[in-house]
Design a protein that fits this description.
By secondary structure, this protein is mainly α. The chain is built from 9 helices and no strands.
Length: 269
C-alpha cells in the first residue's frame, strides 16, 4: 500500500486518510476471502462440522441432522466456511484497524492497548469454550424436553448450525467487555465513577441482553448473566486502576491531563 504523504507536523490530509482507509479495507477483505477458502477446506476435511454437531447428537433419533433441499449441504458448508474464515482473518482485520488508528494515539496509550488486544483474544476463546461445554448442552436438553409425547425431532442442519454459531459468537463477544472498558478508560471516554453509578442500569441491560442472546431457558440465561456481571465488576476495577496510574504520575496519559470535556462521567465546570 502506498504510504500517504504527511505535512511537516506529521498530519495527513483528509483525502489521504480516505485513501489509506480504502487500502486497509481492501486488505481486510482479501484476508477474509483467503480465510474463507481455508475455512472451506477445514469444514470439508477436518471435522469442524462434527464438533458443532456433537452436542446434539445424543438427542437425534438416527444420529444425523436433516436437510430439505439438494443444495443445502453445499450452502451450509459455504456459510460455515465464511464464519471460520472471518475468525481466521480476525487477527489481520484487527491489525489493519490498529495500523489505521494507532498514528493518532500516544505512545503510552499504545503500550496499554496492544496487550489488551491479546487479552481480548483469550477472553473470546474462554467465552466460546464456556458456551460450547456448558451452555449449549444445557440449552439443547431444555429445549428438547417439551412435548416429547407428541413430537419427534427432525432437526434441519441450517437452523441448528445458525443456532449454535449465534450462541458461541455471542458468548465470545460479551466476554470482551473488560477489554472494551479498558480501552475506553485509556482514551478517557469513561471513568470508574460513571461505571459505579450506572451499575444498576448495567445489571438490567445485562439481564435483557442475556435473555435475547440465549435460547430462553433460565439455566443458559443465568450462565451468561453471571460472567457478564462479574466482568462488569472487573471492568470497574480495571478502569479505577488506570485512572489511579494517571493520578500517581505513572500515567498512561500525562499526569497533568484531565479526561476530555466530552468524556462520559467527567465532571462538568
Amino acid at each position: 500500500m502506498p504510504r500517504p504523504k504527511t505535512n511537516p507536523m506529521g498530519e495527513m490530509p483528509f483525502l489521504d486518510h480516505l485513501e489509506e482507509l480504502r487500502w486497509r479495507i481492501f486488505y481486510m477483505l482479501i484476508a477474509i476471502a483467503i480465510g474463507t477458502i481455508v475455512g472451506f477446506l477445514l469444514v470439508q476435511y477436518l471435522g469442524i462440522m462434527e464438533l458443532l454437531i456433537r452436542p446434539i447428537r445424543p438427542l437425534l433419533n438416527e444420529g444425523q441432522l436433516a436437510y430439505f433441499s439438494p443444495a443445502t449441504p453445499f450452502f451450509v458448508t459455504l456459510k460455515l466456511a465464511l464464519v471460520v474464515g472471518i475468525l481466521l482473518a480476525l487477527p489481520i482485520v484487527v491489525y489493519q484497524l490498529w495500523a489505521f488508528l494507532s498514528p493518532g494515539l500516544r505512545k503510552e496509550e499504545k503500550r496499554v492497548i496492544v496487550p489488551a488486544l491479546y487479552f481480548g483474544l483469550v477472553l473470546f476463546c474462554l467465552g466460546v469454550a464456556m458456551a460450547y461445554f456448558f451452555v449449549l448442552p444445557l440449552a439443547l436438553i431444555f429445549l428438547a424436553g417439551f412435548q416429547q409425547q407428541f413430537l419427534a425431532p427432525t432437526i434441519e442442519v441450517g437452523e441448528y448450525l445458525g443456532f449454535v454459531t449465534r450462541i458461541l459468537i455471542a458468548f465470545g463477544a460479551v466476554f470482551e467487555l473488560p477489554v472494551v472498558i479498558l480501552i475506553l478508560s485509556v482514551l478517557g471516554i469513561v471513568t470508574p465513577e460513571f461505571l459505579r453509578t450506572k451499575r444498576r442500569h448495567s445489571i438490567v441491560a445485562i439481564t435483557v441482553l442475556a435473555s435475547l442472546l440465549t435460547p430462553g431457558d433460565l439455566a443458559s440465561t443465568f450462565l451468561m448473566m453471571g460472567p457478564m456481571v462479574l466482568l462488569y465488576e472487573v471492568s470497574i476495577f480495571i478502569s479505577a486502576a488506570i485512572y489511579r496510574r494517571k493520578e500517581q504520575g505513572r500515567s498512561i496519559l500525562s499526569p497533568s491531563e484531565e479526561p476530555p470535556a466530552g468524556a462520559v462521567g467527567a465532571e462538568g465546570p
